[in-house]
Amino acid sequence: MRDNIHSRVVFWLKIILPLVALALLSTLFLFSRRIDTEAALPYAEVDVEDLARNQRLAAPEYAGVTEDGAAVTVRAAVARPASEGGAAVADTITARYETPDGMVITLSADEGSLDDAAGRLVLAGAVKIATSTGYHVTAMRLDSALDQTELHSEGSVRVLAPYGTIDAGQLDIRHEDAEVPGYVMVFTGGVKLVYEPAKKDP
User: Fold this and answer.
1) Is 5 helix (H, G, I), strand (E, B) or coil?
2) Which of 137, 115, 124, 55 lies closest to 92, judged by CA?
3) Is the pTM of this model over 0.85?
């Protein structure tokens, strides 16, 4: 008798349980939230044509060694490839010259261009130059070489030096003699020096 009841229960469960499962699945589909495809589109909008026209590279880096042995590195936040025969344009540029005798020259600017073929780096817009010897220079435009340590300001500069301030129409930093170690800073064009002697401790 028990076996007979058990068999009947198993028989009906085999029928009822699949039906219950189907009913549950049906309710899930009926009450599931409808996806608003139109609302999702703004997050997926990509102007492919604009990306093709305005190709860019994030955080590019250039590294090399000049003829006088200085290590040069140039970094930028964003760069746009050069047109045929032109220079690559970049934003938020930093550069570093590390000379064999230990002097370090760091550059920064809002924007600029790098012409690898011509070996030139041009910086513009709030150009700042700092040397490990204590000079801090501000300029509007700077033309520097990548194949040798040679920097030339195009326009006036203001310099905070260890001994005072210098205003000049032009600044050049270069390795003057291949047989003599060291680098020179040359100021020209209406140079004005305000000497501030170092204060002695009381």
Assistant:
1) helix
2) 124
3) no
